[in-house]
Design brief:
- Helix 4 links the parallel strand 5 and strand 6.
- The chain is an alpha/beta fold.
- Helices cover 28% and strands 18% of the residues.
- The chain folds into two domains: 153 residues, 3-Layer(aba) Sandwich (Alpha/beta knot); 57 residues, Trp Operon Repressor, Chain A, CATH 1.10.1270.
- The chain is built from six helices and nine strands; from the N terminus they run βααβββαβαββαββα.
- The protein has a five-stranded parallel β-sheet.
- Bound molecules: adenine.
Length: 229
């Protein structure tokens, strides 16, 4: 999968993409991540990408032309036959879910356009295939949401997770919270590992885990039970 990130702050991504599973996916060429500096597409000599809002008010608004030119440039450097989505992280978008991560993982290319300041000039939203929010709070820009979405999508791609990290046992994988896990020691601070997990009876263990997932979901996130996909 090809990931393009249009941003004023590409350095923000180095830590998250330079470690662990995402780093390995890039090394294995399952993922290619390219950054496009939005400021390179400013057209005045001072490289302004933002301006004050018409109608007055605090803050600055990202000008439409640099964003448009940056997206066009990314598209010109992309395979025209790729299936793709252009995503604007936006607190007013559809709230990101595991189901959305799974559907985005079916694309060949994702292009993220990360805003900052008070947002984009409204005329640029026509470029977006998706506005995605990562939750009902306002962040300072779209970079953290883009990292969150890339992380969740990347781990759904074939061969990104090792067998020891299977997505099949994730919380939300089947619309439920994950079951509790235990490892050695068998007793810790007087608390013991449930007997069934030591039984070697795989059918019983599977049944216990399913019950635990359902019970946990019922008590902690009953809202999920209405929306199982
Ligand atoms: N930009 C600012 N806040 C955001 C949020 N919660 N989700 C996505 N993009 C954002």
């Amino acid at each position: 999968m090809l990931i393009d990130i249009i941003t004023l702050f590409p350095e923000m991504f180095a830590g998250v993409f330079g470690e662990s599973i995402i780093k390995r996916a890039v090394e294995k060429k399952i993922l290619e991540i390219r950054f496009t500096q939005l400021r390179d597409f400013a057209f005045d000599k001072h490289k302004h990408v933002d301006d004050s809002p018409f109608g007055g008010g605090a803050g600055m608004v990202l000008k439409p032309e640099p964003v448009y030119r940056a997206v066009r440039d990314v598209l010109n450097r992309s395979d025209e036959n790729f299936s793709r989505k252009i995503i604007f992280p936006d607190p007013g978008g559809e709230v990101f879910t595991q189901a959305k991560a799974k559907s985005l993982a079916a694309q060949e290319q994702l292009i993220f356009v990360c805003g900052h300041y008070e947002g984009f000039d409204a005329r640029i939203y026509d470029l977006a295939d998706e506005l995605i929010s990562i939750g009902d709070y306002v962040l300072t820009g779209g970079e953290l949401p883009a990292m969150v979405i890339v992380d969740a999508v990347a781990r759904m791609l074939p061969n990104v997770l090792g067998s020891a990290e299977s997505a099949a046992t994730d919380s939300f994988f089947d619309g439920l919270l994950g079951f509790p896990q235990y490892t050695r020691p068998r007793e810790f601070e007087g608390k013991i590992v449930p007997e069934v997990l030591l039984s070697g009876n795989h059918a019983e263990i599977k049944k216990w885990r399913e019950e635990q997932s359902l019970n946990l979901t019922r008590t902690r996130r009953p809202d999920l039970l209405g929306v199982r996909s």
